[in-house]
Amino acid sequence: MSYQSNFDNFNEWITGLFPDQKEYLQATRELARDVIDIFNAHEPYKKNDVLRRLSMPERIIHFSVPWLNDQGNVEINQGWRIQHNGMIGPYKGGLRFHPTVNESILKFLAFEQCFKNALTGLPIGGAKGGADFNPKGRSDQEIMRFCQAFMTELQRHIGPYTDVPAGDINVGSREIGYLYGQYRRINNRFGGAITGKDISFGGSHVRTEATGFGLIYMLQAVLKEHHENIADMRIGISGAGNVALHAALKAIEHGACVISLSNSRGCLIVDKGLTTADINWAIDNKAHKDNILTALAERVQGQWHDGKTPWQEKMDIALPCATQNELDGEAAKTLLQNKVKYVLEGANMPCTDKARQEFDRSEIPFVPGKASNAGGVAISGLEMSQNASFRRGSYTSIDETLEDIMHNIHQQCVDEGRENNRINYARGANIAGFRRLADAMVLQGI
Ligand code: GLU
């Protein structure tokens, strides 16, 4: 028999280990609650203690990143790479540069990444990394020097068969270029040690669009399952980064009315809906504007609400695409009062525990990030295989594969999450991901 056989034991154990890591506790508890019965029903899972093993990162690398700013002064940041679980493939997951980054946040992201990556069906393990570096207001030269200093340390821990980082918040194509350049310089090796690369040096078609497009492919599968269609649905999106903008683009292409975008300073509401041209303009200009959304508000004569989120608006579908815990219990209640019908997470864990409880109680379809935002890492997986074989797939074939992968994830959630008269997508995703990892663990022994 194993140590823990009910949720309370598990909770006591994990809370005792990491009492101050609230995001990590939130993510691990949420998974354990859903899989504990499956765990108890399988003797090999218990014998191999898979749940506790899956809740401990295999390795945490914590390092200092000293670099020179434009004034010639030394600045020091903290860098991390959490190699959470490598049972089903090389560690894989993004890098986040943000002043709020800490070990708890990166651990929760690495933990979620393992289950997300398992759901894609590809051979990729789970990891996350980043630094408490704030890129806002930094010159291009400073960004380059920071990326180089970060990679000077990280490079010894990664490689195409070991650990393959990619982008995340504030790590986009520019940063990936600088990071990869430094990796290649030191290792004298061209290859798939990083994904999200530019198309000119081994990147994959559709990688930039993949998370946002994948979210809409998942939404279409959910709507089909519920005999509805995306056309004319009012969709509220938060965020204004890669995920939010590409989700908006794909949703508009399919006839939806996208009424919002947001950032840490407030939200833009456009009641008549944004157009493809508006979103493309934002994508093309966001690097040169201090606040792309206030600029867009002027352009489209939308309303800018300082310090607000989009969740007070009336909408059929909510797609939180900004960051963790951005949609709380109160926002969930307002959305439900306004008759929201579907919630799909575009970011990683953007709904708080309370918000999820509200959605769960109301029984509306709620799809967690580990299922609905898996499109980005899925195309990263395809980038790895293209790099390994020195080939490149066409835009169309990769886009079709992305759609297939998202529909397959949807099906796994349906198969594992079917309850009396509804589909519990969150539970389905947790169980399907857990089974794949747990089975690999059992087969590979202690
Ligand atoms: N950061 C993305 C995620 O949260 C992508 C990771 C990757 O491509 O490795 O899934």
Structural features:
Rossmann fold, single chain, binds glutamic acid, globular, 446 residues, 17 helices, 16% strand, 5-stranded parallel β-sheet, 3 domains, 5-stranded mixed β-sheet, alpha/beta
Q: What does the main sheet amount to?
A: 5 strands, mixed
CATH topology value of the largest domain: Rossmann fold
Q: How would you write the strand order of the largest sheet?
A: 1-2-4-3-5
CATH hierarchy, class of the largest domain: Alpha Beta
> Could you say what the CATH architecture of the largest domain is?
3-Layer(aba) Sandwich
* Number of helical segments with 4 or more residues: 17
Poorly predicted ranges (pLDDT <50, ≥5 residues)?
none
How many structural units, i.e. domains? 3
Helix content range of the residues, please? Answer: 40-55%
Principal-axis shape equals: globular
Q: Structural class per helix/strand content?
A: alpha/beta
Number of β-strand runs:
15
Q: How much of the polypeptide forms β-strand, as a percent range?
A: 15-25%
Mean pLDDT: 97
Radius of gyration: 21 Å
Q: So, the CATH homologous superfamily of the largest domain?
A: NAD(P)-binding Rossmann-like Domain
Bound small molecules, by name, code or SMILES, are: glutamic acid
Determine the N-to-C terminus distance: 15 Å
Q: If you had to describe this structure to a student in words, what would you say it looks like?
A:
The protein is of the alpha/beta class. The chain has three domains: 48 residues, no CATH class; 133 residues, Leucine Dehydrogenase, chain A, domain 1 (Rossmann fold); 142 residues, NAD(P)-binding Rossmann-like Domain (Rossmann fold). It has a five-stranded mixed sheet with strand order 1-2-4-3-5. The chain has a five-stranded parallel sheet with strand order 7-6-11-12-13. Helix 5 links the parallel strand 3 and strand 4. Helix 8 crosses helix 15, helix 9 packs antiparallel against helix 10 and helix 12 packs parallel to helix 13. The two termini are 15 Å apart. The model has no long low-confidence stretch (mean pLDDT 97). Bound molecules: glutamic acid. Glutamic acid (GLU) binds next to strand 3 and helix 15.
